[in-house]
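Readers of this paper often ask what the protein records in our data store actually look like. Below, we set out a record of this kind in full and without editing:
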Amino acid sequence: MFELKPIHKEAVAAAMERAKRYRLLNEPVEAESICQDILEVDPGNQDALATMLLALTDEFDFRLSAAFGEATKVLEQFTDDYSKVYFEGILCERRAKAHFKRGGPGAAFLAYEWLTKAMSLFEKAEELRHPENDEAILRYNTCARILNRHPEIKPAPQDDAAPMLE
């Protein structure tokens, strides 16, 4: 194993900018790594937690289960209720998109489940937001538009069949 080198506390702001840049360059692993370095010297840095969570969701296309689990652990470290609920909604929304993009049997049903869960969380976040913060409304509307544009994303059919008795 290689030993990791710590960054200087004075370098956190520049490292944060670099992490955001790597996300924009579609290099989520690099962004996640930088956020981990930041959190080593500045535990609880909310901006680093948010960027790390988003970088992990960027990894859903190639490692959904593992990245989702890691992102859920990051979610627990947010200190305010709004962020916890809002970013949980982001996790659900992006998981829905990953399922839909992958396709396969039941993918549209899974996408529906995760999108509607995200919408519910965004509604809860809307109640907790500051009046000038409409992020949760914007995310809710995105989910609604996805559902409106893709009628194949719908709830799984209910199995009303009675169990067979022996």
Q: What stands out?
A: The helical segments are 12-24, 28-41, 46-58, 60-75, 81-102, 107-128, 135-149. The chain is about 70% helix and 0% strand. The first helix runs from residue 12 to 24. The mean pLDDT is 95.
